[in-house]
Specification:
The complex is a heterotetramer of chains A (675), B (151), C (329) and D (334).
Chain A lengths: L13 E6 L11 H11 L3 E7 L5 H14 L3 E6 L2 H14 L7 E5 L1 H5 L5 H19 L8 E4 L4 E4 L3 H12 L4 E4 L14 E2 L4 E2 H14 L3 E4 L2 E9 L2 E8 L14 H5 L3 E4 L7 E4 L1 E2 L11 E2 L5 H5 L4 H5 L12 E7 L1 E4 L3 E3 L16 E3 H8 L20 E8 L14 H16 L2 E6 L9 H10 L3 E4 L2 E5 L11 E7 L4 E7 L1 E6 L1 E3 L3 H8 L26 E3 L9 H21 L1 E4 L4 E3 L19 E4 L4 E4 L9 H5 L5 E3 L4 H11 L13
Parallel strand pairs in A: 1-2, 1-3, 3-4, 6-7, 6-18, 7-10, 18-29, 20-27, 21-22, 21-27, 22-23
Antiparallel strand pairs in A: 5-30, 8-9, 11-12, 12-17, 13-14, 15-16, 19-28, 24-25, 25-26, 31-34, 32-33
Chain B lengths: L9 E6 L3 H10 L8 E6 L7 H9 L4 E6 L10 H18 L7 E5 L5 H18 L20
Parallel strand pairs in B: 1-2, 1-3, 3-4
Chain C lengths: L9 E6 L5 H7 L4 H8 L1 E4 L8 H5 L6 E7 L2 E3 H13 E7 L1 H4 L12 H10 L14 E4 L2 E4 L3 E6 L9 E3 L6 H15 L68 H4 L17 H11 L6 H8 L5 H5 L17
Parallel strand pairs in C: 1-2, 1-3, 3-5, 5-9
Antiparallel strand pairs in C: 4-8, 6-7
The chains are: A alpha/beta (675), B alpha/beta (151), C alpha/beta (329), D alpha/beta (334).
C-alpha cells in the first residue's frame, strides 16, 4: 500500500568516495574511518574509498575505473559543496558510461569540517550525511537532458545604453532584434546627462551615433512608446505581446520637422527628460536628437484631448501626420531570447526631509543638475540658482543621498562618487564657485577614476568627510543669512561644521524601477528584496537569470555606471548569440511531470507555477506540465493531493530515503511493529 | 530545561539557491554552529512536502528546520509564499497533534546569510534542547505484554 | 448458508474494532451473496453464523482461502484474531477503512488511553457514582475472568500482520465488493489473475475528483465554511466554495457519492496511490491555494479550519506517518 | 470614526508648570468627542537619568504605569500629552518587548505590588498623534468657529516626540508636519520652521547656562526671523525652556526677542471659540497678549502679584550664611 517502501529495481551497486580535501576535511573528520564504515554499514555499497583530492584527475579516474571494473551503477562523492564540483563528478560518471544523474554529492566540508570543532562529533555528522546520500542515490533515476530549438529572434526591453548596446551587438551578429522602449525615444538616462566621467566626453556626442545606428539598423525593429504586456513560452520559443501606445502621429507621414512642437500652445513641466527642471509641449519629442524622430501627443495635457478644441498641431503639420483617432496596437512577436535592460529610478530626495529637497529652492537633485549643466538643457548649460539668473558663489555636493543608509537603501549606488566629482569639476569650470564635497568614503575603483579624483582635488574642491545632518535656511551665525547652511560632522577633524553655501546638489542614489517587481513577475524572473533583478550567479553568471532565455543587463540588475552597463549589454548579447549559434539547447532535466492516469483534474496545481508551465486540458480533465517551461522548483509536486505530479531527481522516494538515511534508522535495530 | 547531555537531531530542508548556499557561506567563513542539524537539499522550499516533515519527526528527528529565500526573494519568483502557507497550516495541525511549537521552524536565509543561518540553527538547537527529546519512534505504544491492570 | 460447501474454497469474515458497516455492505450485495455461497464454504463469519474461535484454531494453517478482515486493532482480542486468521488464511484482505487506515476509531489516537477511559466512565452524563473503572481481570468465585485489554493506540491490520490486499472505503461500496468477489471466483477457476500482493483492490487509481461531476476551476481560497452554516451551490466545486472537501486527496472508487449528494468527501477511501500520508497531502494542497501571502492573514483564513487534525486525519490517523498525537498519557 | 476612548496619563508637568496644557487638552478633547480616562494612581514616568544607572529599577518604575493602564482599559491607547512621558512609556514598552529577560525581572518587581504587565499590551501614543490620526484635520477644521486667520505660528516639535524612531508610526521623524497640518486646519499661517525638531536645551540651563541659552536663542531667533507671532509646541519641557528662560537669554545675549510660546491645544481651543481663560492663556511668562491681539483675542491682564514686604527693622535676622562646624566634630575627625 505504501509505495514509498517500494524496492529499488535491479541490483544497486554504489560506490562511495570520501575526499580529504588536503587537510580541509581530514583535519576535522576521520576520513579513513568514514570510508571504512560506509563500506561496511551502508546498504548497497560495494566500494568505499578515500582520496586526498577527489576532484583531481586521479580522484576522478578512480571513480571511472570502479564504474567500469566493479560495475557500479550509483556513485556518491562526499567532499565539498555540490555547487563547486557536482558538474565535475557528473562528467566523470558520464565518461565512464554512467548516466550523470545516478551520481549524488554530499557536502562534508562546508557543512561539516569547516563548521565544527570536535572531531568525533564531526565524523559522526559526516557519516549521517553520507548515509543520507547513499540512501537517496539508490532511488536516483537516469535522466536525459531536454533539447529545445532556439528561435534566432531576440527581444531587448529597455532602450537605454545597455539595451542599445545589446541590440546593436545582436543585430550586427545577424539576428533580428525587437527593441522595446516605454518612452517616446530611446536613449535612457544617458541622454539626459551632460558630461560622462572620468573622460568628460559629452554624453550626447557619444550616445547619439549609437542611437541613430540602432534606429536605422536593418536587423532592429524599434518599438518606442511601447510596453510588454505579456510573455508566454520558454527559452527558444517566447511569444510576447507588446502594446504599442498610440502616438497620435502617423509615423509614415511624419518627417520629424518639429513644427507641431513649435506651434503647440500647451507648455508642461517635463518630469521625465528634464527631471522637472524644464518644460516641453503637449506634443513633444523628449529632445531634439530623439530616435525615432517622431513626436507623441501627451493626451493628458493636450488641450484638444482635454477640452475638445485646439488642433494647432494638425493645422500646422505640413504632411498631415497628426491623427487624433489613432489607437493603441497590440503586436505579437516570437523570439527565442529576451534581454531586460530596464534601468533604474533616481532616489527621490524628498524622502530625506532634512535635506530640504522640494522645500528649499536651491537644493537640486543630481539629475536636475545634469539638466542644468547640459548645453541643451533649460539654461543652456549655465549653472545658476533656481531663480534662473544668479550664479552661485559656493556649492555643496552631498554624496550618498539615499545610499549606504539603513533608513533608505543599505547598498552603495556606485556611481555617485564619480558623478559628484564630475559635478564639482563642472561647477568649478563654469562658475569658479567654491565647492564642498561631503562624502562618507570616496570610492573610485575603476580605470582612470582615482586619477580624476586627484585632478578634482587639485582644482581646490574642499572635501569634508561626514554625513550631512541637515541642510537648512535657518541662519544662526553671521554670514549665514540668506544662505543654505550645511550642518555636518567633519569626522576627520572631529568637529561639527556649519558651511553656508548658495546651492546644494544631492547626489541621489539609484533605485530599482518602481514597477520592477511586476516586470520581474511578467518575465518570470526573480527580484531582490529591493527590486533589483537577480542574476543566476553573482560572479560567474552575471547576466543570465534563473529563467532560461531571459537575460539582464545594465542598472536593472544593480547600480552601475555607463561602462559597466555597456559591458553587460554586450555580455548579454554574447550569451544570446551563443545560444542562437547553437540552434538548440539542452536543459537540466530536473522537472516536474504529471502522471495523467493519476491526475483527477482537481486543478490545485493550476496556479502554482509562476512560469505558466502548467496547463489544464478541459477535454481530458487533466493538467499537464510543459517541461521546457518548468524550472524544476517542485512546488506543484508538493501541492498535488493525488500524488500525480512527480519531480525528477527530487522524487518523494529520493527525499524520504534521504531522511531515513540521515537519521540512520536503517542502521539501528529497527523495531518491527507486531502485536 | 537542564541540558542533561541530550543532543537533538534536527533535519533541515534547504533551498538550493539560498539557504543551502547560506550553509556553504557559513562553511567558507568558518562559522562554527551546532552540529545537530543535518541538511537536505531541495530545489526550492516550495518543494517541501509536509510529508517530509512528518516523516522526519516520525523517524526519530527531534526537530525540523525549513529554510528558504526571504519572502520576495524567491529564485522561483514566489514559491516561498506557498511554503509560508503550508507551514502555517502544518503548525496548526502539529499543534493539534501535541507537537510543540518550535520543533518545526521556518527560517529565511539568503545565500549570503551564512551567519544568520548558523545563528538560527544554534537558537533552534537550544530551543529543542529545552523541549527535550521527541522520541517519536519509541512512542507508538506497543501492546502491553501481560494481562491484567486497566484496559 | 453452509452445509453443501465441502470441497469448496473456504471463506471467512471477521469484525474487529469497527462499526459493523462493512458487514452490512457485504450483505448489501443482494443476490450476489448467493454467488458467494455457491462458490465458497463459509467457515467463519460471526455476524452471519455461529462459530467459535476454537473452530478456527483447529483448522490447518492456510485452510481458509479468503478472509475479509474488517475493523481496526484496538485491543488484544483484535490482535489475537488478526494473528490467528493470518495464519489460517491464504488471502487476508484488510476490508474497509478501519482495517486499512484506522478510520473513525483511529481518531482515538488523538488522545491517551487513560483519558479515553476516564472520559468514557466519568463524564457528567455517565452514571458511575463510585468512579469504577473496568478491570481486565476479575476473580469470580468460578475462577478468574478476563476481558480484552485496550491498546494504547488504534492500529491498522497491516501494522499487526502482513496483509495481502487492501479494500478501502467506509464501507467499501457494494458494486466494488461484487467485482472483487467476482474476480476472486474467476481467479479460483483459473480464468483471471489476482493483482500482485499488497495491491489496493476494489478502488480506483486516481482521486474522487475524477468521478465528481462538478466543474472545477483554478482555486484560490480565502474563506473556509462549514456545512452546518452554509448551503453550497450544487453546480460548483465544493472546495472552491470554501467547504473542506477531501475528494482531491482521496482515492477514487466510490463514484463520488458524497459530493453527488451535495456533501463534501470526507476521505474514507484513503490516500491516493503514491501518497503516504493523506492528511499531509490534503494540508499541502489546501494551504497551497490560500489566497494570501501575509502570514497573519493566512493564519486568520486558516482559523476557519476547525479541528485540523481531526479533519485531515479523519480516516487515516493510525496509518499516517505520525500514527497518533503526542499525549501526556 | 473609531471610538475615541483613551487612557490618559497627564504626568507631573501637566499638574504644575504645564497646567495650561492640561486644562486646554481636556477642554479640546471634550469638544472633539475624545473620552480620556485618567490612569488610576499613576506615578513618575521615569523622566530622569536614572535609566542609565539602574535599568531594571527604572523600567519597573515606568512599567508600573503601563500595568496600571492595562489593568483598566488596557485595549484603549494610552495618551500622554507630555513628550517626555510619551517617550518614556513607549520606550519602556519597547524595551520590555525586545528583552524578555528584563520583562521577567520587571514583572517580578511589579508582582510585589500585585501588578503585572505583558509587554505590547498598551499602545502608547502622543496627544498630537491621536488628534491628527484618530480625529483628523478635517474633523478639527469642522469645529473651528474663530479661525486664527492672520496669526503666524512656528510649529515646534522638539526632540522627544520625533526621535528615536519609536515615535508616531509613519510620521517623518526628521521633518514632521503633523503639527503644521493641524495648525493650518485651524486657520493659522504656519511658517516653515526648519528648527522644528532642534534641541530646546533640555536641562542645559541648569548645567551650563551659556550652552542652554544659545540653544534657546537659536530657536527664538529662528522663529522671529521667519516672522512668527508665536511658537506653538506640544512639549512641556520645550515650552518651559523657551518661555521661562527667554528673558534670561535676552539678558545674556543683550537681545530683545519677544516670541510667546503656546501649547497647540491652547490655540486650538481659541480657534474652537473658547475664551482665553478656558485655555489658560495668561499663565505664560512671555506675554502672548500682543500676538493674540492681532487676531482679536482678548486676554485679561494677569492679576498683579501681591507686593513683597520689604525687610525693615521689625524683621528678624536671617541665619548666617556659613555655619561653623562644631569644634568637637572637627576634633573627632582628626
Amino acid at each position: 500500500m505504501n509505495d514509498n517502501s517500494q524496492n529499488v529495481s535491479g541490483d544497486v551497486r554504489i560506490g562511495v568516495y570520501v575526499c580529504h580535501c588536503g587537510s580541509n576535511i581530514a583535519s576535522m573528520v576521520d576520513v579513513e574511518e568514514v570510508a571504512r564504515w560506509a563500506g561496511e554499514a551502508l546498504p548497497g555499497v560495494v566500494a568505499s574509498r578515500d582520496n586526498n583530492f577527489m576532484c583531481s584527475s586521479l580522484g576522478q579516474e578512480m571513480i571511472e575505473k570502479d564504474i567500469k571494473e566493479l560495475g557500479l551503477n550509483r556513485v556518491v562523492v562526499a567532499a565539498c559543496s555540490p555547487h563547486l564540483h557536482e558538474a565535475t563528478f557528473r562528467n566523470a560518471c558520464q565518461r565512464a558510461g554512467l548516466n550523470p544523474f545516478l551520481f549524488d554529492m554530499v557536502s562534508i566540508r562546508e557543512q561539516v569540517s569547516w563548521v565544527n570543532t570536535d572531531r568525533a562529533v564531526a565524523t559522526e555528522k559526516a557519516k549521517a550525511l553520507i548515509s543520507g546520500g547513499v540512501h537517496r542515490v539508490a532511488y536516483n533515476q537516469p535522466l536525459e537532458p531536454i533539447i529545445v530549438d532556439i528561435n534566432p529572434n531576440v527581444m531587448v526591453v529597455g532602450g537605454g545604453i545597455a539595451g542599445i548596446q545589446a541590440a546593436l551587438e545582436i543585430a550586427d551578429g545577424g539576428s533580428h532584434v525587437y527593441l522595446v522602449e516605454r518612452e517616446p525615444s530611446i536613449g535612457g538616462h544617458m541622454a539626459q546627462l551632460d558630461k560622462t566621467f572620468p573622460t568628460l566626453d559629452c554624453s550626447a556626442c557619444i550616445l547619439t551615433p549609437k542611437m541613430f545606428t540602432a534606429g536605422n539598423h536593418r536587423n532592429i525593429t524599434l518599438l518606442t512608446w511601447s510596453e510588454v504586456e505579456k510573455v508566454d513560452g520558454f527559452i527558444g520559443n517566447f511569444t510576447v505581446k507588446i502594446r504599442k501606445k498610440a502616438r497620435k502621429v502617423d509615423t509614415d507621414l511624419c518627417t520629424g520637422c518639429g513644427l507641431c512642437e513649435e506651434k503647440c500652445p500647451k507648455k508642461v513641466v517635463d518630469e521625465v527628460f528634464e527631471a522637472g527642471l524644464g518644460y516641453r509641449k503637449a506634443i513633444y519629442r523628449p529632445f531634439p536628437q530623439a530616435v525615432p524622430k517622431f513626436p507623441v501627443i501627451d493626451t493628458e495635457n493636450c488641450t484638444f484631448f482635454q477640452k475638445g478644441t485646439c488642433k494647432a498641431c494638425q493645422k500646422f503639420c505640413p504632411t498631415g501626420a497628426i491623427n487624433f483617432d489613432q489607437q493603441d496596437e497590440i503586436l505579437t512577436v516570437n523570439v527565442g531570447n529576451i534581454i531586460l535592460a530596464t534601468g533604474y529610478d533616481l532616489f527621490d530626495s524628498r524622502r530625506i526631509s532634512q535635506y530640504g529637497y522640494g522645500r528649499l529652492a536651491n537644493v537640486f537633485s543630481s539629475l536636475e543638475f545634469e539638466r542644468l549643466s547640459n548645453a541643451a538643457g533649460p539654461t543652456g548649460g549655465k549653472v545658476v540658482l533656481r531663480d534662473g539668473v544668479t550664479t552661485p558663489q559656493s556649492v555643496a555636493i552631498i554624496h550618498c543621498v539615499g545610499s549606504r543608509d539603513t533608513n533608505y537603501n543599505k547598498y552603495c549606488s556606485s556611481i555617485c562618487c564619480m558623478q559628484s566629482l564630475k559635478f564639482a569639476h563642472v561647477v568649478k569650470e563654469r562658475t569658479g564657485a567654491q565647492v564642498y564635497d561631503f562624502y562618507i568614503d570616496i570610492r573610485t575603483p575603476a580605470k582612470a577614476y582615482d586619477e580624476f579624483y586627484q585632478h578634482v582635488l587639485e582644482e581646490n574642491v574642499l572635501f569634508v568627510r561626514g554625513k550631512v545632518a541637515e541642510v537648512t535656511d535657518a541662519a544662526r551665525l553671521p554670514g549665514e543669512e540668506g544662505k543654505l547652511i550645511v550642518q555636518v560632522e567633519d569626522t576627520l577633524a572631529g568637529k561639527q561644521r556649519r558651511i553656508p553655501v548658495d546651492m546644494v546638489i544631492l547626489s541621489a542614489g539609484l533605485e530599482p524601477r518602481a514597477d520592477s517587481k511586476e516586470v520581474a513577475k511578467k518575465f518570470g524572473i526573480s527580484c531582490s528584496y529591493e527590486g533589483w533583478f537577480i542574476e543566476r550567479h553573482p560572479k560567474l553568471d552575471p547576466v543570465a537569470t534563473m529563467t532560461d532565455g531571459i537575460f539582464i543587463a545594465g542598472a536593472c540588475q544593480g547600480p552601475k555606471d555607463i561602462p559597466a552597463a555597456v559591458a553587460q549589454g554586450a555580455a548579454a548579447a554574447a550569451r544570446v548569440m551563443g545560444l542562437v549559434g547553437q540552434g538548440q539547447i539542452s536543459l537540466e532535466p530536473v522537472r516536474a511531470y504529471v502522471n495523467e492516469a493519476q491526475c483527477s483534474g482537481c486543478r490545485i496545481c493550476n496556479n502554482m507555477c509562476p512560469f505558466n508551465a502548467i496547463t489544464f486540458h478541459e477535454d481530458r480533465a487533466v493538467s499537464e506540465i510543459n517541461p521546457a517551461l518548468c524550472q524544476g522548483c517542485g512546488t506543484c509536486v508538493s501541492a498535488c493531493p493525488a500524488g500525480a505530479i512527480r519531480a525528477s531527481h527530487f522524487s518523494d522516494q529520493q527525499v524520504m530515503a534521504q531522511i531515513e538515511g540521515i537519521l540512520m534508522i536503517d542502521l539501528k535495530q529497527r523495531e518491527l511493529v507486531n502485536g | 530545561m537542564a541540558d542533561n547531555g541530550f543532543e537533538p537531531v534536527i533535519v533541515g530542508f534547504t533551498c538550493n539557491w539560498c539557504s543551502y548556499r547560506a550553509a556553504d557561506s557559513a562553511g567558507m567563513a568558518r562559522i562554527k554552529y551546532a552540529p545537530n542539524v543535518r541538511l537536505i537539499r531541495l530545489m526550492c522550499s516550495g518543494r517541501l512536502d509536509p510529508q517530509f516533515v512528518l516523516k522526519a519527526l516520525a523517524e526519530g528527528a527531534d526537530g525540523v528546520l525549513i529554510s528558504g529565500c526571504h519572502p520576495g526573494d524567491c529564485h522561483y519568483v514566489e514559491q516561498n509564499y506557498k511554503t509560508i502557507r503550508r507551514y502555517e497550516l502544518l503548525k496548526k495541525t502539529l499543534d493539534a497533534l501535541g507537537i510543540e511549537e518550535g520543533r518545526v521552524k521556518l527560517v529565511w536565509a539568503s545565500a549570503a546569510e551564512g551567519a544568520i543561518l548558523a545563528d538560527q540553527i544554534d537558537q533552534m538547537v537550544a530551543k529543542i534542547k529545552s523541549l527535550g527529546p521527541l522520541n517519536w519512534k519509541a512512542r507508538p505504544a506497543r501492546a502491553p505484554t501481560g494481562k491484567g491492570g486497566q484496559p | 448458508m453452509s452445509g453443501n460447501g465441502h470441497g469448496k474454497p473456504k471463506f471467512a469474515m471477521y469484525w474487529a474494532a469497527g462499526c459493523g458497516g462493512c458487514e452490512i455492505a457485504v450483505l448489501n450485495i443482494h443476490e450476489g451473496i448467493l454467488d458467494l455461497d455457491a462458490n465458497f464454504e463459509v467457515v467463519f463469519w460471526p455476524v452471519a453464523m455461529d462459530a467459535k474461535y476454537k473452530d478456527v484454531e483447529a483448522m490447518e494453517d492456510g485452510e481458509i482461502t479468503l478472509c475479509l478482515f474488517n475493523g481496526s486493532i484496538r485491543n488484544d482480542e483484535n490482535a489475537e484474531m488478526a494473528h490467528l486468521l493470518r495464519r489460517k488464511s491464504k488471502v487476508l484482505v484488510a476490508f474497509g477503512s478501519c482495517a486499512c487506515e484506522g478510520c473513525i476509531p483511529g481518531l482515538a489516537n488523538l488522545y491517551s488511553k487513560r483519558s479515553l477511559v476516564e472520559t468514557a466512565f466519568s463524564t457528567l452524563t455517565t452514571d458511575n457514582p463510585g468512579g469504577v473503572l473496568p478491570q481486565t481481570t476479575y476473580a469470580a468465585p468460578e475462577g478468574e475472568l478476563h476481558i480484552p485489554t485496550l491498546y494504547e493506540t488504534v492500529r491498522t491490520l497491516d501494522q499487526v500482520v502482513k496483509v495481502d490486499y487492501y479494500m478501502p472505503g467506509c464501507p467499501p461500496e457494494s458494486p466494488q465488493i461484487m467485482s472483487v468477489l467476482g474476480l476472486v471466483i474467476q481467479a479460483l477457476k483459473g480464468e483471471a489473475q489476482l493483482p500482485p500482493a499488497g495491491s489496493v483492490i476494489g478502488a480506483g487509481n486516481s482521486t474522487v475528483c475524477d468521478e465528481c461531476p462538478r466543474p472545477r476551476n483554478e482555486k484560490t481560497l480565502t474563506v473556509f465554511r462549514r456545512m452546518a452554516t452554509f448551503q453550497p451551490n450544487v453546480q460548483e466545486c465544493l472546495l472552491e466554495q470554501g467547504i473542506l472537501c477531501s475528494g482531491l486527496a482521496t482515492r477514487s472508487g466510490c463514484k463520488a457519492l458524497c459530493p453527488s449528494a451535495n456533501m463534501p468527501c470526507i476521505g474514507c477511501y484513503g490516500p491516493a496511490p503514491e501518497v503516504v500520508d493523506q492528511g499531509a497531502r490534503m494540508m499541502s494542497a489546501i494551504a497551497s491555494v490560500i489566497g494570501s501571502n501575509d502570514p497573519k492573514e493566512i493564519d486568520k483564513i486558516m482559523d476557519g479550519i476547525v479541528d485540523p487534525a481531526g479533519t485531515f486525519y479523519r480516516f487515516g490517523l493510525p496509518h499516517s506517518l505520525l500514527h497518533h498525537a503526542r499525549t501526556d498519557g | 470614526m473609531n471610538s475615541l476612548r483613551y487612557s490618559y496619563f497627564p504626568g507631573c508637568s501637566l499638574e504644575h508648570n504645564a497646567a495650561a496644557y492640561h486644562k486646554s487638552t481636556l477642554a479640546v478633547a471634550r469638544l472633539l468627542g475624545m473620552d480620556f480616562e485618567e490612569v488610576e494612581d499613576w506615578n513618575c514616568c521615569g523622566a530622569t537619568e536614572y535609566i542609565s544607572l539602574n535599568m531594571m529599577a527604572s523600567m519597573a518604575l515606568i512599567a508600573r504605569n503601563l500595568a496600571q493602564a492595562a489593568k483598566g482599559n488596557g485595549h484603549n491607547p494610552l495618551v500622554a500629552p507630555c513628550s517626555a512621558c510619551y517617550l518614556n512609556l513607549r520606550k519602556c514598552d519597547y524595551y520590555l518587548q525586545a528583552n524578555p529577560e528584563l520583562a521577567e525581572q520587571v514583572n517580578t518587581a511589579l508582582a510585589a505590588g500585585g501588578l503585572s504587565y505583558q509587554a505590547g499590551t498598551v499602545k502608547v501614543r502622543h496627544l498630537v498623534d491621536v488628534i491628527y490620526s484618530d480625529v483628523g484635520c478635517e474633523a478639527v477644521a469642522a469645529h473651528v468657529t474663530k479661525p486664527l486667520t492672520g496669526l503666524r505660528v512656528a510649529p515646534y516639535y522638539g526632540c522627544l516626540i520625533s526621535r528615536p524612531r519609536l515615535g508616531p508610526d509613519g510620521h517623518d521623524t526628521e521633518y514632521p508636519t503633523v503639527l503644521d497640518e493641524l495648525l493650518a486646519s485651524i486657520g493659522a499661517t504656519v511658517v516653515d520652521f526648519p528648527l522644528k525638531t532642534h534641541c530646546c536645551g533640555g536641562h542645559m540651563t541648569q548645567i551650563s547656562e551659556g550652552t542652554g541659552f544659545e540653544l534657546i536663542r537659536r530657536l527664538v531667533k529662528g522663529a522671529a526671523d521667519s516672522g512668527a507671532d508665536a511658537i506653538v509646541t506640544l512639549c512641556p519641557m520645550c515650552q518651559l525652556n523657551l518661555d521661562a528662560f527667554q528673558g534670561a537669554m535676552n539678558r545674556y545675549f543683550k537681545t530683545s526677542y519677544h516670541v510667546p510660546v503656546l501649547y497647540f491645544t491652547q490655540v486650538m481651543g481659541l480657534a474652537f471659540g473658547m475664551s482665553a481663560q478656558e485655555v489658560e492663556i495668561g499663565s505664560e511668562l512671555v506675554d502672548a497678549r500682543p500676538a493674540l491681539a492681532k487676531i482679536g483675542v482678548e486676554v485679561p491682564p494677569a492679576p498683579e502679584p501681591a507686593p513683597k514686604r520689604r525687610r525693615d527693622d521689625k524683621s528678624l535676622p536671617m541665619p548666617s550664611k556659613k555655619r561653623e562646624r562644631p569644634a568637637r566634630a572637627q576634633e573627632a575627625k582628626r
